[in-house]
Amino acid sequence: MPSWKSLLLHLYYYGSVPYRWWKTVQAIAEHRLPIAVLFYHRVADDALTPWTLPNREFARHIRWLADHFQMISLEEVQRRIRTGDSTQPAVSITFDDGYAENCHQAIPLLIKEGIPCTYFATLRNVLNGNPFEHDLAMGLRCPPNNLEQLRAMADAGIEIGAHTYTHADLGRVTDQRQLYREVVTAGRELEQLVGCPVRYFAFPLGRLANLNAQAFQMARDAGYQAVCSAYGGYNLPGGDSFHIRRVCVDDMIRLKNRSTIDPRKLNVPSFSWEPIPECVG
Length: 281
Known about the structure:
The chain is of the alpha/beta class. It is about 40% helix and about 15% strand. Strands 1, 4, 5, 6, 7 and 11 form a six-stranded parallel sheet that branches. The protein has a three-stranded parallel sheet with strand order 8-9-10, with helices on both faces. Strands 2-3 form a two-stranded parallel sheet. Strand 4, helix 4 (about 75-85) and strand 5 (about 90-95) form a beta-alpha-beta unit. Helix 1 packs parallel to helix 11 (about 250-260) and helix 9 packs parallel to helix 10.
């Protein structure tokens, strides 16, 4: 990040601390404290991609979060949304894609500290061991997780979630059979291979343009407890507990800005999806 931008973000955060404190006190009194769900991709010390966070920085994130928030699971996020009752600052940690390097230090740290985490893996890369296409496009060959790593994480209490079969942009998929494979088949096969329930699904890319109303309905019909987007915004008590919104936190100042009540994130539009009468199975 350019130094000027970092300076502006620091000024914005520290200048808005009184407002954030007041909004937090107000929301606690109303039992409607927003919940931030954070997502990471790759934690490693090589800085190969813009979505790679150094291990030391990730550890700083976790220490700061543990000092300021309850660290809760997606299931608890849903419960607070569904009941409309949220009175304690809380965040939930998730990972997308499934990079092998996450198992070197980041995931063991979460397991050691007893911090809930949902880990969304793309099935094709787990099965064939090939790097993700978005890495290959940059000339990189970052290894994906294998089944043994996912099974070990699941055994240690990490929630394994589905992140499609091929990391497809579902906003562009119109063929329902392909959509079914990406959303439903990916989760069911992952469940059998890892040997644990796969209860959550995350859209690759996850911005508004990458979401798909048919995929929402297929996921609900298939029995997923929730789907996750990644276009920012908080989860508000009394809102849609099936659609969990997430924010990216790729450095410390963004973590502070986005995990506390950021005025810019309070009015992020929600993705509307209507129930579809029938989806191809």
